[in-house]
Design brief:
The complex is a heterodimer of chains A (78) and B (335). Chain A is built from two helices and four strands, in the order βαβαββ. Chain A has 78 residues and is of the alpha+beta class. In chain A, strand 1, helix 1 and strand 2 form a beta-alpha-beta unit. Chain B has one domain. In chain B, helix 2 crosses helix 14, helix 4 packs antiparallel against helix 12 and helix 6 packs across helix 10. The longest helix of chain B is centred in the C-terminal third of the chain and has 30 residues. The chains are: A alpha+beta (78), B mainly alpha (335). The interface between A and B is large, with 31 and 41 residues.
């Protein structure tokens, strides 16, 4: 179970990316967040941003047709 | 409409829609994310699609195998329309091709943006904003009586320019490498979608030109024909119109066969934003004489100066709006 959840289902581009970035940057180091996404491009670019920013992609759970739960862990401080 | 016009238009549209959906190809994302998150993945897909088509069209027209039409350089319309289109696509959450393929995937926000796009086109083409379009398009720059291109403006054979640009950009893409080929959603990696879209662009030129429409893929004109038919009954449907219908069906099939078809509805304020953005996009695309496909892919492939200026303006408009809407608020939060 992640520490917080962010439901981005139904959102248009690029709000899933913008809101995920905002939420992860507010997390304490090592804390996790589960982002619900229903749009393939958003899953790709949120995952790519998280990896390039040094956060951990803990898991990508397939919830059904075009619906995923992406669990991210905020990078440790420093 | 002849049988070949109908079938080839639908076939190219089906392939186009399928490739757009599997590649999640969106020029809005490509242009915006370079600035917003320093991610050039989608921009590279677009650049590859442009150079593949440019090299193919340069060779085919150079060998006189295909007639081409170069979009005009009405610089004021290219700049103003391009800027408006860039602003509108960031608001709408997708460029014109991105919006259309997402309609096929079941995204309600994109359907609203598409309706806005069609209305915006009519507003500038034959509605209240037609005088603005007429003024902005009144000054067309020709070079020795021909439409201005990157080649004739500097007096070089188009064959050289049309092969040198793909070579230079190709080397830049090659040196950057492909990167991670496995995307989280299982879609095509950027180099596959870029190459596929470039090849579909060439197929579009060949089939469309063979039925007298001497142009390749475009969105604005074809979408206009459907809205004119729906709202006034005048029938201008052509190769491009059936291609657009094929695009939406192609995207639907791609989404359906990959478990990505789903009806998705954003909240109310976002619906308004998508619709408003769509209208701004439509006005801009109509004034400029094309959008991120007609100018930024097809027009670029024939080296049109108007298309280069429009594409640059789209990029600047998108960056301006992304800065106001996303980058500045994010920076304020981190500060």
């Amino acid at each position: 179970m992640a520490d917080t959840e962010l439901d981005m289902r139904g959102e248009i581009c690029p709000y899933p990316l913008v809101e995920s970035k905002r939420a992860v940057e507010k997390l304490a180091p090592g804390a996790t967040i589960e982002v619900l996404i229903d749009y393939p491009l958003a899953l790709d670019n949120v995952t790519r941003w998280a990896q390039s920013a040094g956060h951990e992609v803990v898991e990508t759970r397939d919830l059904g047709p075009s619906e995923w739960a992406l669990v991210l862990r905020a990078k440790s401080a420093g | 409409m002849g049988g070949f016009e109908l079938t080839s238009g639908i076939a190219v549209g089906l392939a186009f829609g399928y490739a757009l959906q599997r590649g999640r190809f969106c020029v809005n994302t490509g242009f915006r994310d370079i600035l917003m998150v320093k991610d050039s993945t989608m921009f590279r897909a677009w650049a590859l699609a442009v150079i593949v088509q440019m090299a193919g069209v340069t060779i085919l027209s150079g060998l006189d195998l295909m007639p081409i039409t170069v979009p005009p350089f009405w610089w004021a319309a290219n700049i103003a329309g391009g800027l408006m289109f860039g602003v509108g696509m960031v608001l709408a959450g997708g460029c014109s091709s991105g919006t259309c393929y997402r309609v096929g995937e079941g995204m309600a926000g994109s359907l609203v943006a598409l309706v806005g796009f069609g209305l915006g086109i009519l507003l500038a083409d034959r509605g209240a904003l037609q005088p603005l379009q007429d003024v902005l398009r009144s000054n067309i720059v020709f070079v020795d009586g021909d439409q201005a291109t990157l080649a004739n403006v500097i007096g070089i054979n188009p064959l050289w320019v049309g092969l040198a640009i793909p070579l230079a950009v190709g080397i830049w893409l090659w040196r950057g490498g492909v990167g991670n080929r496995q995307y989280a959603s299982g879609g095509w990696a950027w180099h596959i979608s870029g190459f596929a879209l470039g090849a579909i662009g060439i197929a579009a030129w060949l089939s469309s030109s063979s039925v007298g429409r001497e142009f390749g893929l475009s969105m604005t004109g074809p979408i206009r024909t459907w809205f004119v038919l729906a709202l006034s009954g005048e029938n201008y449907l052509d190769w491009g119109s059936v291609m657009i219908a094929g695009l939406i069906v192609g995207s639907f099939v791609a989404a359906w066969t990959h478990r990505e078809l789903r009806w998705r509805v954003p909240r109310g304020s976002r619906i308004l934003q998508a619709g408003g953005g769509g209208i701004v996009m439509g006005v801009g695309a109509q004034i400029a004489g094309g959008c991120n496909i007609g100018h930024s892919m097809t027009g670029m492939s024939v080296l049109s100066l108007g298309s280069v200026v429009t594409t640059t303006s789209i990029l600047l408009g998108a960056w301006m709006m992304a800065y106001i809407l996303f980058i500045r608020p994010m920076a304020a939060q981190s500060a």
